[in-house]
């Protein structure tokens, strides 16, 4: 989610106004994804590099996170959404961590949209912490580890890998988001600033995704044969 600051600047408003509007965009996007039947939505809210911002902006973002949790969790729960946070929570205030933990507990059994917020998250950190956990659990084992052994230790655990990655705000970078999981994800970049990201903008991204051919290393011909076979089986 990128572009809150620029959205505010264009309106001669302080950056905080952009972050406030950004929270609204989050609320709308979560609702639209649930309506569209999306299985899992993961939002990159705060990266491990964002601590480098002015102290005032960092505390404001933390405050916004706290108030969004206080206001929204009950509604998320009513909508059957399963809420999770990934990232290194050790640097957050106790109050925020408590709110996150109780929200996760409350919504854990929900079977609707899996909403994950990445906070103080970094893709490299995630891979490293997974390797360290694997080493701890398989300490004595000297045989080479496999992807299947590592994957459950990653923050996204056994969730399916993302089909579509959306970055708003015009930049064309992954910026240390889900590095492992994005290996085969379709990347979509839009100039739309995050506070302006609405249902229409989301649908544009989904339309672009639908036009792509996902080959996973195979040839185009193999993919069309496989799709025809699946279609025939599905129609049988
Ligand atoms: C993204 O918007 C929001 C967060 C990182 C929390 P920015 O704050 O990065 O907005 P720009 O890039 O300055 O426009
Ligand atoms: Mg930015």
What layout of secondary structure does this protein have?
Elements: H1 4-10, H2 15-36, E1 40-47, H3 55-78, E2 82-86, H4 94-107, E3 114-121, H5 123-137, H6 147-150, E4 164-167, E5 186-189, H7 199-210, H8 220-235
Parallel strand pairs: 1-3, 2-3, 4-5
Helix pairs in contact: 1-2, 2-3, 3-4
Hetero compounds: 3-methylbut-3-enyl trihydrogen diphosphate, magnesium ion
Global outline: globular
The N- and C-terminal alpha carbons lie at a distance of: 42 Å
Please estimate the helix content: 40-55%
Strand residue content: 5-15%
Query: In the CATH hierarchy, what is the superfamily?
Result: Decaprenyl diphosphate synthase-like
- Provide the low-confidence segments as ranges: none
Index terms:
236 residues, alpha/beta, Undecaprenyl pyrophosphate synthetase, three-stranded parallel β-sheet, two-stranded parallel sheet, 8 helices, 5 strands, globular, binds 3-methylbut-3-enyl trihydrogen diphosphate, binds magnesium ion
């Amino acid at each position: 989610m990128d572009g809150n600051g620029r959205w505010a600047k264009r309106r001669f408003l302080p950056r905080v106004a952009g972050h406030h509007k950004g929270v609204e965009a989050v609320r709308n996007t979560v609702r639209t994804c649930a309506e569209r039947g999306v299985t899992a939505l993961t939002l990159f809210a705060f990266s491990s590099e964002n601590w480098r911002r002015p102290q005032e902006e960092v505390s404001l973002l933390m405050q916004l996170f706290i108030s969004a949790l206080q206001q929204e969790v009950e509604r998320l729960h009513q909508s059957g959404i399963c809420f999770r946070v990934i990232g290194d929570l050790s640097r957050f205030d106790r109050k925020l961590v408590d709110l996150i933990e109780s929200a996760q507990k409350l919504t854990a059994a929900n079977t609707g949209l899996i909403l994950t917020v990445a906070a103080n998250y970094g893709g490299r950190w995630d891979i490293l912490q997974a390797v360290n956990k694997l080493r701890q659990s398989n300490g004595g084992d000297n045989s080479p580890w496999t992807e299947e052994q590592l994957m459950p230790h990653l923050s996204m655990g056994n969730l399916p890998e993302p089909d579509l990655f959306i970055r708003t705000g015009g930049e064309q970078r992954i910026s240390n988001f889900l590095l492992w999981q994005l290996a085969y994800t379709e990347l979509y970049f839009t100039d739309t600033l995050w506070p302006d990201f609405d249902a229409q903008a989301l649908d544009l991204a989904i339309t672009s995704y639908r036009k792509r051919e996902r080959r996973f290393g195979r040839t185009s011909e193999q993919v069309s044969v496989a799709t025809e076979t699946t279609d025939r089986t599905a129609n049988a």
